[in-house]
Amino acid sequence: MKLQSKIARIYSPVSSELKLVDQKLVDFADMAPDYARPVLQYAVGRSGKRVRPVMTLLAASVFGEIEEHPIKMAAATELLHLATLIHDDTIDNADLRRGADTISKKWGNHVAVLIGDYIFAKSAVMVCETGNTEVVRRFAETIMELSSGELKEYFDIGDVSCDISSYWNRIYNKTASLFATATESGAVLAGASEQDAEKLKIYGNKIGMAFQVMDDVLDITGSSSELGKPAGNDLAQGVMTLPSILFCSRYSSEDSVKRFMQNPKDPEIIMKLSENVRDSSIIGECEAIIAEYCEEAIAQCNSLPRNKASDALITLVEYLMERQN
Question: Which of 28, 138, 178, 218 has the fewest CB atoms within 10 Å, measured from its CB?
Fold first, then answer.
């Protein structure tokens, strides 16, 4: 199946509901106070593929017709994701996101932090409107996990001895936790059994882990034009990711590793290390880890009701696996 056909198959079961999610996001920005409106309209207008809300809607659709509460939850997951991106870009002093100026670049750090807070708050309000205390609690826990992951990443900056267990914990918190909440909450709000909701939570977790490892690989192997942001940004920011952690552990006696350990902030040394990682077998090992996570995600779908929505969740995994090639 061609890539575009896969994308259509993923989105088509929930296309009408996704339009309602988009409208909620637009309405949120358009109805904001006049001083905040331009910033929010810019932020919402620059949103990406809506992967997390699509996952929420698909998880709900597995169990029947989608009602209002999963749609609100889908909008909330996208707003939470958007708020974290705005804060991330501010902390990282990033100029570009998806090929356009970041909020912090365009309006300054103070506005970026406050607008991120404003969006966080709106996402919480939307979740509360579902009236489901289990979902509200899980969403609050997710905000804590996201913050914990970002804090861990910040305090690990420049720590070239970052171990693999710390990395797994960090990327679960900063990425996979929201994916897991997106799918679990969609299932819960659609009336799924506890067992089925747990399967979709695990599915989201595995997809989120694969997604983050893939981003970390693409940061090494991709180009700035492909990524919509500077390539090699992780090491430049002092953040050790799976490819660099594995390479430095495996080839500790290699010259580029020794030089990096001694001076992890030198741009030329970072560039040389990135080249060596890119040309090594480590990238293939990371891709194998991504594939394993994807297979585990598909396994969770095999015992769910079979319909267009559950098929789309499987296709989403297949699309993710092809994205790395």
Answer: 218
